[in-house]
């Protein structure tokens, strides 16, 4: 456990052979070992589930699972495709996934791609399995299946190193908890000796206080409205509105159509029919530039694939969406002003980076997420759409982002927050709509929402929206 940038993933990459250690020793079965490559780590019985998806999208699920270690057959030593499909199907069945091993990874959702990564790590039959945020993109049901697999692996004598920002998971499955802070080892403790508050204090070196920000926003007129948005095989007749000063939560299970609705409003994948209104007037959004020009911003679900230029600097990633603001005559960038705004948001969002010129791809996942958020906040949008804004974010950074959301809404702006974390939906939303299989199945005001009601609607039990004022 540890905040973003504490060194958890870096330490695990040393164990996995991706980074070279400067000093110290690694022992396996009491014997010192040298891990100089991922191949060496695998030969020593170490496999990893990485925080960031590393699959090759144009290959099949089975080809990804057995990439680099394909079984061969016959005198021509050809890849035994039937065998890898069969064995991949068995591993997927073991973790309770219905994903076909023969389809391309490109056609999978983020959740399903994460399941493939889990299957790949388990398929090595390693003695030591490192799991870095394995449940950050999967459903609660899938996570519970993973926990069953973990318990089975433990019973077989396997060792699990498990990194997560979800404390309920840690206390559910961990025997011991090691805490890192700012690259330093703080200590290792039996799980039963810690509680949430004590663990947070060890992680951050201070008391966090309330996890969710106190909200006292004045909610005004409708700012943005969607009417009967539909897209073939994705969603149909989706209608909702969000008001000035309001945080609208969108809940639902993976595949419910929540991300697709956000992408329609932002112009990434426009709806086939329906209309979007801003300040009561219909607007046309056919591409992201249309949305940005009207003050609509989107922090996407997959920061690595569509949220960041991973080879670019922190500075360039923060300023790229509003670069014309820092240009003279629309062409020459005023670098002093650009650097100043990037430093401002690095400080405001507590982004851990050596400098604004540091490559964003070298930051931790949580700090990368903050960079995406900084980009859109720097554009001063009127409507901010956040798709899983705190996924892979530590408890301290979550509290910071929640406070920023409340502050942003209090200025008369509107927030649309998509989240798979029910506590976040219940505590941060002024109003919540719930989706199931592309349809809105429920709507709740803050004072009437319950976890049970949300889950019922997310499972397809529709609630009459006419009772909600």
Could you explain the architecture of this structure?
The chain is α/β, with parallel strands linked by helices. The chain is built from 17 helices and 21 strands. Strands 15-18-19-12-20-21 form a six-stranded mixed beta sheet, with helices on both faces. It has a four-stranded antiparallel beta sheet with strand order 11-10-13-14, covered by helices on one side. Helix 4 crosses helix 5. It is globular. The two termini are 43 Å apart.
Write the layout of secondary structure elements.
Blueprint: H1 8-15, E1 26-28, E2 31-33, H2 38-43, E3 46-49, H3 61-65, E4 72-73, E5 78-79, H4 81-94, H5 110-123, E6 128-132, H6 140-155, E7 159-163, H7 167-173, E8 176-181, E9 184-190, H8 196-204, E10 222-231, E11 235-243, E12 247-252, H9 258-266, E13 273-278, E14 281-283, H10 288-293, E15 296-299, H11 303-307, H12 314-319, E16 327-328, E17 332-333, H13 335-348, H14 365-377, E18 383-387, H15 395-410, E19 414-418, H16 422-428, E20 431-436, E21 439-445, H17 451-458
Parallel strand pairs: 3-6, 6-7, 12-19, 12-20, 15-18, 18-19
Antiparallel strand pairs: 1-2, 4-5, 8-9, 10-11, 10-13, 13-14, 16-17, 20-21
Helix pairs in contact: 4-5
